[in-house]
């Protein structure tokens, strides 16, 4: 294994020599392209990525680099963490995923009214009733009953000086463990990722490959091509631990790797769901369908992921979800939690009233939590 910045390592010297030879074989000559590269560099160095023109030398270097990555990967001599993984800087995503259509979810009352003092609201016991959002009958005209398996919501009101955020975490779990998970979840002050685990993140995967190539969630793919369920431990390190199945994978290819990758950060069904239900994708959409063209999973999002109002919601059609849960002998539960907070937190680059707010945060008096279970047989939330 080569240490960082060790430019004299024999493997690096050999690989770099091959890359330089390949650039030469492709026809690049520094003298031949010098004037053109200088002109390009002088006129485009301030341009944004989607308008920037790369120098010829850089283009030839990228070609040789990608070829060498492919050669090393085919020979299985990359470090184990990179074998089977695509290089991050691989340009255009040929699937060009479409953004989902707009949809207004049936949000419950999240911020209450003016009759409540905001300080009291933050430290009070207000918890939204998430049931209208956990199961909906219609999304963009697609009927049949839709069940939320992963969601995030943030709502703000500057006039009330309020902000509420929530993670709506659907988990598949053995029926016998549901009550134990509920007790532990409601007892803990703050549910973090060590308590309620998150799904894996796929960073360097073309969006259209999910469900079609084995490099999607490669760590879950078995030698026979069948996917393992994404099983993790809830309350890891807090005995007794509870096994849960995470029903989603996060698509996290950062946009700075390609100016064409403009839509990222969304959630996709876990590969076991896709495979067991025989789902497919079509027309560059991030949603999944049955072979007859009927929608099976729907992802909807809106708003800025960093500031202001935002939601991201992944739904599975109720009859398909019931089939999956029956097949795997599990039930669906939701561990929902988040924060009641002040909208305005900074003034003149300083935290507002830090001495008053910090003890509230430390005591987790601003945290809201709720637990629900889905009765798949009658399609009701209990």
Q: What is the share of helical residues?
A: 25-40%
Kindly name the structural category: alpha+beta
Mean pLDDT: 87
What's the overall geometry? globular
Would you write up a description of this structure?
25% of the residues are buried. The N and C termini lie far apart (54 Å). This protein is 25% helix and 25% strand. The protein is globular, with a radius of gyration of 25 Å. With 382 residues, the chain is an alpha+beta fold. β13 (346-347) and β14 (350-351) form a beta hairpin. α1 crosses α3. Strands 1, 2, 3, 9, 10, 11, 12, 15 and 16 form a 9-stranded antiparallel beta sheet that branches. Strands 4-7-8 form a 3-stranded mixed beta sheet. The mean pLDDT is 87. It has helices at 10-25, 30-44, 56-74, 118-123, 131-134, 178-187, 271-276, 318-328, 354-362, and strands at residues 135-139, 142-157, 162-173, 201-202, 231-234, 242-245, 248-251, 266-269, 288-289, 295-303, 310-317, 331-341, 346-347, 350-351, 367-375, 380-381. It has 9 helices and 16 strands.
Feature tags:
382 residues; alpha+beta; 9-stranded antiparallel β-sheet; 3-stranded mixed β-sheet; 9 helices
In a few lines, what is going on in this structure?
With 382 residues, the protein is an alpha+beta fold. The protein has nine helices and 16 strands.
Which secondary structure elements does this structure contain, and how are they paired or packed?
Layout lengths: L9 H16 L4 H15 L11 H19 L43 H6 L7 H4 E5 L2 E16 L4 E12 L4 H10 L13 E2 L28 E4 L7 E4 L2 E4 L14 E4 L1 H6 L11 E2 L5 E9 L6 E8 H11 L2 E11 L4 E2 L2 E2 L2 H9 L4 E9 L4 E2 L1
Parallel strand pairs: 4-7
Antiparallel strand pairs: 1-2, 2-3, 2-11, 3-12, 5-6, 7-8, 9-10, 10-11, 12-15, 13-14, 15-16
Helix pairs in contact: 1-3
